[in-house]
From TrEMBL, chains A, B:
Its EC number is 6.1.1.15. One of its GO terms (molecular function) is aminoacyl-tRNA deacylase activity. It comes from Undibacterium parvum. InterPro entries: aa-tRNA-synt_IIb (IPR002314), aa-tRNA-synth_II (IPR006195), aa-tRNA-synth_II/BPL/LPL (IPR045864), Anticodon-bd (IPR004154), Anticodon-bd_dom_sf (IPR036621), Pro-tRNA-ligase_IIa (IPR002316), Pro-tRNA-synth_IIa_bac-type (IPR004500), Pro-tRNA-Synthase_IIa_type1 (IPR023717). Catalyzes the attachment of proline to tRNA(Pro) in a two-step reaction: proline is first activated by ATP to form Pro-AMP and then transferred to the acceptor end of tRNA(Pro). As ProRS can inadvertently accommodate and process non-cognate amino acids such as alanine and cysteine, to avoid such errors it has two additional distinct editing activities against alanine. One activity is designated as 'pretransfer' editing and involves the tRNA(Pro)-independent hydrolysis of activated Ala-AMP. The lineage of its organism: Bacteria, Pseudomonadati, Pseudomonadota, Betaproteobacteria, Burkholderiales. This is Proline--tRNA ligase. HAMAP family: Pro_tRNA_synth_type1. Residues 33-473 form the Aminoacyl-transfer RNA synthetases class-II family profile domain. It catalyses: tRNA(Pro) + L-proline + ATP = L-prolyl-tRNA(Pro) + AMP + diphosphate. GO terms for biological process: prolyl-tRNA aminoacylation. It is an enzyme of class 6 (ligase).
Length: 578, 578
């Protein structure tokens, strides 16, 4: 490609509404252009990256025997009503009426449509397993679109759906996709991690997220550096501390802690470690029984330095539909307002659940259910009955790994892929069955597998940039190599050399752009550093008089002189990762 | 590709709602699957054809220095309001509100968005010319979607937009696109014709449609077999008959024609040719002048066997906003009801326009403005004043070609492409300017260029099918070659031969499918004839014992025996069109 036949549009400054680095750099590099809130034009430079991402995804999906098709953007409401998602999904689901008043969804995902296709196409177990995928425009009406392609409203996604005869088959199909995703993210050239995930609201069992590692990532991901354990924060298990609970050594003492409602303040006042304190979280669950509203108040106990994990809490029997208790409910059950609550001497009985760590504590400090007072020296079994124990908290760095093979570390990630065992949730609600070997109808076992194609661009940049701009991995760079001639219009030698190298690179199948715009070197270099092309060759009279060209990798701090006849093989070796 | 790793789903019968052959065959061949009215899933077999069409389009657009980008499906209403199309477009424009109540269009086309992009990107004449294109999903809420992909609601289209400094530049950009389209449709392997078109409601001047020729096409296209003149019916000019008008030879005579309101019936009653009769069409134009409604009645005269061309009529000064006159208006002006109207002796004055052919008639028959009476022997200048003359009618086969090089013929076509000189209509309404050499702002000269990607599939089939199924041109066939082994699971020789040929074809870059489903020959052949793969190779023990394979082209009536070692070069020659 010649730059004069392409469209290059760079900006010195990012627009004010660009908050994060990938958004700023994509705007400045002319990769995207805002059309509306969370809606972007993909400019020619950005589209090249998208196509490279799509092609890698497509190749690896095909290699895994997934079959490409294309499902529509505008999907009839009836299918979404069959699964109940028409009502369950909130305003994120963009809805539209046609001229006859019929309702449609602008698709955010295609479980309903693929299940509709498959239930009419699949008759027999002999047709299984099957895996269909498509790469399509999607829309999610985010309440607050932001961060460019990271949380846009219109975006491109690859979604695949597998269909199997039984759970074993599903697990196999899932593993095939897991492996394909591992190849895909490896080929992108991005540092990533697959982490066990909660199976969430979508139903089913078994799920992994693929995260691109980046300090700016909005998700915390948990891993064990000495084993292959990895999970997202929602799913990472906090195991019980090892060993026995220490024996009580202090007496239960009501201690004045005036104005110290937080564990941190109490610890400071009493000059004890925060890890000796216990904090109280009060939840309410309302259920309707025979038309009457029944209200149950729960007290959850966490060590003072730990954080509640709401996903884990919602899985405790009886706590699925909890909410935080109101102040009135708290006063009614504890006899005091929040800040001094604890498990001892509540006004009314409450159900108590202690986190695994709290259940192993002795001589701990907790609220006394009286304003401005805490108990010190509290001990299980002696001062209060042993409570129900559960994993209630987020793990922290240094926690023991659940696989027993070391301690956990935490890093930030950006979720770009998700594989999910759906089971029969969709096939049951949409009556998608096949006939098994005995001629009996069975529900199809489904899996779903997504990759946020346009989101990859944002994530790749969050991981790979410097103060000059983007640093694309070669596999998804808009161009692999840029040729920068110095004074092409003035020097015949430069013109000849750059044209011959350009032709040789094209012939070798290299995705090269020749910057023939005639810009000054400073502006030209700044453009390509901003755009992030990974390999740059400078052709100038100064080097040519010694028969040399200049190579510089985007991460290199200095240029390398390469003799003219060696440059082609030098670049091919670079592109081959040598 | 192995058939067992692909998804093949054929039907014996087409669904009842499939009305035309391409729709029926695409449904039966498992290329598309209906999701809703005018909305289809593109199944794996159909998507392969779409991708081949897209790739040819993309290659030729790139070759023409058009630059690919991607504009969104969901577009803010504000831009559509700037050009007035938000109001002008009827319910065909699908409109949607987001969670904040803001309005958006589901794009049917992207003139507004590209003009918005360009007005902020283009500052100077030095950046011009430019041509941007995208291949994107579009939606048009047709009142009555039908004919499968021919008149669907959701469809894929390539649309390109050129930007130039002046009309000369626009004309050059237009010609480049015209030539690209010619290459594209030639590469598809379809019989097509580019025809001059009316510039329609979109504004601007200069337009051609590209039609795929098919007897079932819904458009009549006009061409001259002995020259390169071609136009669609709206635009084809009906020239005046050559020579002089014959002198009057009969007297004007009021003749009783009781109950004969139509020219055909009058001609039959009077035993004269239909070409001696003149029919009357009455139009009304209402204009508001200084708050008062002014009404003008027009009488258009056509030869009895000719048809009115409404596009031509609307271009006559004063007739832009015409409607058919009401019966009351007719009675008021002509003193009689429709059926016996004519230009002689009207009750009130009307403006008369004679078609070019009518203006050359003498001794003609027309209504006498009295029920059950016609005039015979009517003559211009003698019985009524010479009237305003214009081209009012559709051409018919045998009319003189406007280029004077022969006579016109008419064939049926399916419009699949359209190139259009928009001029400054969009740039003016959206204030898209550039600075010229003198630093003065000028409006951008725009062109737009569309190809209905998914519609190509329907049109290709309407042109190429037989009673067995589809006959794809090789360039856009889902597979170029199908290998049909006879008893692959029983014969080691067949298995060995088919695998070796399959590997050789893949290595030669042939897009081949190996049908390893183990079906009976009859069913297998029927599937591939229905799907329309252009080249078939049968591998069976019967031929192999003589060292032979069987080749049959999809249009061949008989198979050709080809020696095993010759088959690869034989097929490569076929694919090269030899």
């Amino acid at each position: 490609m010649r730059a004069t036949r392409f469209f290059i549009s760079t900006l010195k400054e990012a627009p004010a509404d660009a908050e994060i680095v990938s958004h700023k750099l994509m705007m400045r590099a002319g990769m995207i252009k805002r059309l509306g809130s969370g809606i972007y034009n993909y400019m020619p430079m950005g589209l090249r990256v998208i196509r490279k991402v799509e092609n890698i995804v497509r190749e690896e999906m095909n290699r895994s025997n997934a079959i490409e098709m294309l499902m529509p953007v505008v999907q009839p409401a009836e299918l979404w009503q069959e699964t109940g998602r028409w009502d369950k999904m909130g305003p994120e689901l963009m809805r539209v009426k046609d001229r006859h008043g019929r309702e449609y969804a602008i698709q955010p995902t295609s479980e309903e449509v693929i299940t509709d296709v498959v239930r009419s196409e699949i008759k027999s177990y002999r047709q299984l397993p099957l895996n269909f995928y498509h790469i399509q425009t999607k829309f999610r009406d985010e309440r607050r679109p932001r961060f460019g392609l990271m949380r846009g409203r219109e975006f491109t996604m690859k979604d695949a759906y597998s269909f199997d005869r039984n759970v074993d088959g599903l697990k196999q199909s899932y593993q095939v996709m897991f492996d394909a995703y591992t190849r895909i993210f490896t080929r992108f050239g991005l540092e990533f991690r697959a982490v066990a995930a909660d199976n969430g609201a979508i139903g089913g069992s078994g799920s992994h997220e693929f995260h691109v590692i980046a300090d700016t990532g909005e998700d915390a991901i948990v891993y064990c550096p000495s084993s292959d354990y990895a999970a997202n924060m929602e799913a990472a298990e906090a195991v019980a501390p090892s060993g026995e609970r220490a024996a009580a050594s202090a007496a239960l003492t009501k201690t004045a802690t005036p104005g110290k409602a937080k564990c941190e303040d109490v610890a400071e006042l009493l000059a004890i470690p925060l890890t000796s304190t216990v904090k109280s979280i009060v939840l309410t669950v309302e259920t309707e029984e025979k038309g009457a509203l029944h209200k149950q108040v729960w007290l959850l106990l966490l060590r003072g330095d730990h954080e509640l994990n709401e996903i884990k809490v919602s899985k405790i029997p009886g706590l699925a539909n909890n909410r935080f208790a109101t102040e009135d409910e708290i006063v009614e059950h504890f006899g005091t307002r929040p800040g001094y609550l604890g498990p001892i001497n509540t006004s009314l009985p409450v159900k108590i659940v202690a986190d695994r760590t709290v259940a192993m504590m002795s001589d701990f400090v907790c609220g006394a259910n009286e304003a401005d007072f805490h108990f010190t020296g509290a001990n299980w079994g002696r001062d209060l009955p042993e409570a129900q124990v559960a994993d209630l908290r987020n793990v922290v760095a240094g926690d023991a790994s659940p696989d027993g093979k070391g301690v956990l570390a935490i890093q930030r990630g950006i979720e770009v892929g998700h594989v999910f065992q759906l089971g029969t949730s969709y096939s049951e609600s949409m009556k998608a069955t096949f006939l098994d070997e005995n001629g009996k109808p069975q529900f199809l076992q489904m899996g779903c597998y997504g990759i946020g194609v346009t989101r990859i661009l944002g994530a790749a940049i969050e991981q790979n940039f410097d103060d000059k701009g983007i640093i694309w991995p070669t596999a998804i760079a808009p161009f692999e190599v840029v040729l920068c001639p110095m004074g092409m219009d003035k020097s015949e030698a430069v013109k000849e050399q750059v044209e011959s190298l350009y032709a040789a690179l094209l012939a070798a199948g290299v995705d090269v752009i020749l910057d023939d715009r005639g810009q000054r070197p400073g502006a030209m270099f700044a453009d390509w550093e901003l755009i992030g092309v990974p390999h740059r060759i400078v052709i100038g009279d100064r080097g040519l008089k010694d028969g040399m060209l200049e190579y510089q990798g985007r991460r290199d701090t200095e240029a390398t002189a390469v003799a003219v006849p060696d440059m082609l093989s030098f670049i091919l070796a670079k592109l081959a990762g040598k």
